[in-house]
Design a protein that fits this description.
Blueprint lengths: L3 E5 L3 H13 L3 E5 L2 H11 L3 E5 L7 H10 L8 E5 L3 H6 L4 E4 L4 H12 L3
Parallel strand pairs: 1-2, 1-3, 3-4, 4-5
């Protein structure tokens, strides 16, 4: 069974690129365009991994990551932040790793494979 990855990104072009890279690798993807939707999808669908933009409108990825890690139902789901910001701040928000924007497809593939190894 294919691993499921939630891609939370408000920019449709960026989201499309990440989804395409992951789909070509054989992953099943779920999509959210804001933190609130990402939170609801993660709770309902229990993906194997979340790739989340931190700078989304409404509930941003910072807050969504904090809430996901504080919830026992979703705390164990790894989160890779997509950010043009400081990656260490992403870790402080609860993200397990980060990718600096803009991301190359190879970098996305390698990071996802690394986080899913053994899950």
């Amino acid at each position: 069974m294919a691993k499921r990855i939630l891609v939370a990104e408000d920019d449709p072009d960026n989201r499309c690129i990440v989804v395409k890279v992951l789909t070509l690798e054989g992953y099943e993807t779920l999509e959210a365009d804001n933190g609130r939707s990402a939170l609801a999808l993660a709770r309902r669908e229990r993906p194997d991994l979340i790739v989340m933009d931190l700078g989304m409108p409404g509930m941003d990825g910072w807050e969504a990551a904090r809430r996901l890690k504080a919830d026992p139902q979703t705390a164990d789901i790894p989160i890779i932040a997509l950010t043009a910001w400081d990656g260490e701040r992403a870790r402080e928000a609860g993200c397990d790793g980060y990718l600096s924007k803009p991301c190359r497809p190879k970098t996305i593939r390698e990071a996802v494979a690394r986080f899913l190894a053994g899950r």
